[in-house]
Amino acid sequence: MLKIGITGGIGSGKTTVCRVFELLGIPIFYADTVAKLIMNTDPVLKEEILKTFGQKSYSMDGELNRSYISSIVFKNESELDKLNALVHPAVFRAFDNWLGIHYDAPYIIKEAALLFETKSYTMCDLSVLVVSPEALRVKRVIARDAISQDEIALRMKRQLSDEQKMKLADHILFNDESRLLIPQILELDQQFLNIGKRS
Ligand code: ATP
Q1: Which of 6, 14, 15 to mutate to test the pocket of ligand 1 (most atoms within 8 A of CB)?
Q2: Any atom of ligand 1 within 6 Å of the Cβ of 113
Q3: 10 in contact with ligand 1, CB cutoff 6 A
Q4: Structural domains in the chain?
Q5: What are the pLDDT digits (tens) for 40-88?
Q6: What integer pLDDT is reported at residue 199 of this predicted model?
Q7: For the whole model, what pTM was predicted?
Q8: Which residue lies with its CA nearest to atom 11 of ligand 1?
């Protein structure tokens, strides 16, 4: 099964790109959405979070106390590393299970903001980087979310730069308002279908 990893900086348009692949019938594993979900559903992960961050991490009915966890990890880098060290392996496990469901797809896509940073691209056959100018990304994220410019800058700091990621990526999609995005996606889809048929 051909596995494609798609990534890009905050607001670059990776989810938008994946929605188009989804319309083409390609199964997508949204790693960041799964990460949020499994903190409420994976019993092993929940136990590890409770052990690491204490009883206050979950409410009485077993829901993650997001504001409590955020208050710990977003002001302390080493606490964030601790949380990631628990969540990332659990996401890898969920991805493995998910792959089993989509064994007959021509190819599949894993969308992850930190595909390179977490080394999860090593579990994919090919990687795609969505690139968009920083000013445009900031404008789009502010229009999409209730988020400050400082918070966006903080998230960008935790991600590799586009220059660093371009060295690692097999394909680049330019979402910069000067090149049409959909033809670039259709071209990649054809390439992946051809590689998928041969593998
Ligand atoms: P994040 O890392 O924050 O999840 P992302 O890389 O997944 O972001 P998207 O959510 O796909 O980015 O895009 C950010 C915002 O920009 C969204 O509101 C999306 O609709 C918009 N957007 C992305 N690409 C385009 C485009 N080519 N034309 C118009 N709007 C776009």
Answers
A1: 15
A2: yes
A3: yes
A4: 1-27+107-199 (3.40.50.300), 32-101 (3.40.50.300)
A5: 999 999 999 999 999 999 999 999 999 999 999 988 889 999 999 999 9
A6: 76
A7: 0.93
A8: 13
